[in-house]
TrEMBL record:
Belongs to the YjdM family. This is Alkylphosphonate utilization protein. Residues 45-111 form the Protein YjdM C-terminal domain. Pfam families: YjdM, Zn_Ribbon_YjdM. Residues 3-32 form the Protein YjdM N-terminal domain.
Length: 111
């Protein structure tokens, strides 16, 4: 782990790991690493305006985008319905004009 998590009980920042559990010296709380992994499984995807996106949302392109490996250009204002969020560098899977695409959320705004 790059950074120790804050204590879930008191939000203390001086947490240490004792090979089995995380321990907070401020309140004495102990918890396992599995609990930390479960809480970090949720990822948040935001559009270009900072609105949080969810599976099933509709989004609109904010600029023209060239599709790699193709002569296709997605036009600004194109709408994608029923998006699916994925945990990768291109974090939105969708269909625009019948073509399945993986897009970055920074080029989208929530419709």
């Amino acid at each position: 782990m790059d950074q120790m998590p804050n204590c879930p009980k008191c939000n203390g920042e001086y947490v240490y790991h004792d090979t089995i559990h995380f321990v907070c010296p401020d309140c004495g709380n102990e918890w396992s690493g599995e609990e930390v992994a479960q809480s970090s499984d949720e990822f948040i995807v935001k559009d270009s305006n900072g609105n949080q996106l969810q599976d099933g949302d509709s989004v609109i392109l904010i600029k023209d985008l060239k599709v790699k490996g193709s002569s296709l250009v997605l036009k600004k204002g194109s709408k994608a319905k029923n998006i699916r969020l994925v945990d990768s560098d291109h974090n939105v899977d969708c269909k625009i004009d019948g073509v399945s695409l993986a897009l970055k959320s920074e080029f989208l705004k929530k419709a």
